Amino acid sequence: GQQVMQIPQYQHVQEGEDFTTYCNSSTTLSNIQWYKQRPGGHPVFLIQLVKSGEVKKQKRLTFQFGEAKKNSSLHITATQTTDVGTYFCAGPRNAGNNRKLIWGLGTSLAVNP
Amino acid sequence: DAGITQSPRHKVTETGTPVTLRCHQTENHRYMYWYRQDPGHGLRLIHYSYGVKDTDKGEVSDGYSVSRSKTEDFLLTLESATSSQTSVYFCAINTGEVGSYNEQFFGPGTRLTVL
To answer: Which of A23, A71, A74, B51 is a plausible cystine mate for A66, CB 3.0–4.6 Å?
Structure first.
């Protein structure tokens, strides 16, 4: 069945180091979203990528959508303690409409000050 | 956060009792979703709604039912709670607006403990 996989599952970094998480889909995605969930919080929508090869930036965060639209990455430059949380990618489920998503299991980021 | 509230925010109940969780949105968005989140399983879709009285099952719907009699409210019911339903429950919406895609916006969550 359709799957979305994220690696790594966990990442510890020192503050100031860079961080990257990768998202790989078993199927071609029409679009992909990234979300951040702080500890004890709810997932918060960060960004959506739609075009093949698309790159978007939000301050220190850079998001890429692969040329084949089957993979994506989130790169954080010079991490800060405020970046702590779990980052999820999600894409539309193939079957049916209704804007359902299939989710990766997330990458949990810990930042040591 | 798209005006989404969930109630209650925390609940402790006993096995076998019925439980209803409420999701309320203030902006008349078409699509609403109920997820549960458990360690190691990420977000799993329980049920979703694509309009008033239009609902369908997600990937983990056994033991859960839903109702949407008004655009703004989406109710999740555990008919007879079991310990395996201890989880954090999130409601989410998709605006369904022209030009939008699949982005979802989440409520604050309900932490449910079934003893």
So the answer is: A71
- Give the H/E segment covering residue B23: strand B19-25
Chain A contact for B40, CB < 8 A? yes
CA distance linking residue B44 with residue B112, whole number of Å: 15
B68, B103, B110: best to mutate for the A interface, most A CBs within 10 A: B103
pLDDT tens, chain B, 115 aa long: 568 999 999 999 999 999 999 999 998 899 999 999 998 889 999 999 999 999 999 999 999 999 999 999 999 999 999 999 999 999 999 987 777 778 899 999 999 999 9
Q: For residue A8, list its beta bridge partners.
A: none
Scanning every residue of chain A, which has its alpha carbon at the shortest distance from the alpha carbon of B1?
A44
A109 within 8 A of A79, measured Cβ to Cβ = yes
Q: Which of A7, A8, A10, A5 is nearest to A84 (CA)?
A: A10
Residue B112 CB-density burial (10 A; 0-12 exposed, 13-18 middle, 19+ buried)? buried
| Residue from A40, A71, A47, A44 nearest A61 by CA | A47
Q: How far does the CA of residue A77 sit from the closest CA of chain B (Å)?
A: 24
